[in-house]
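Review the following:
>
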Amino acid sequence: MLKAVLWDVDGTIAETERDGHRVAFNEAFEAHGIPWRWSAEHYGELLVVAGGRERLLHDMASRPDAPADSAAREALARTLHAAKNVAYAARLAQEGLRFAPACARCSRSVAPAACRWRSPRPLAAPTSTRSSRSTWALRGATGSPPSSAART
């Protein structure tokens, strides 16, 4: 008998990396007058690096138009990452993201009667992302807020 359903967030419930974070990074570049744009293919390659700020630093290391000084690169990465987070949150609030159909079907098929739990749907999202993003993703995918969004 099921006791809980755990969902991964980025790239599982919705294609948040390609259609969310990448687009928000590009919006941050544009807002700061930086001519960089990350294609879906290039961003896919950057995903080997964990963390948005770290991904920016990794990308800057190969850009001749990035700041040469490491402190300046770090400051730019912090600024761009903060702007990306604002753009990403605004995007979620205004448009949302399309959820993976298989995840939506799966969440609907988990019948509360088949599980031993107190709340109608014990959902959790073990994640390294902000819990508000996990909450949004689970609510959108399942129609219910999660029981928890534990940051790992």
Remarks:
- The mean pLDDT is 77.
- The two ends are 26 Å apart (CA to CA).
- The first strand starts at residue 5 and ends at 6.
- Residues 70-94 form the longest helix (25 residues).
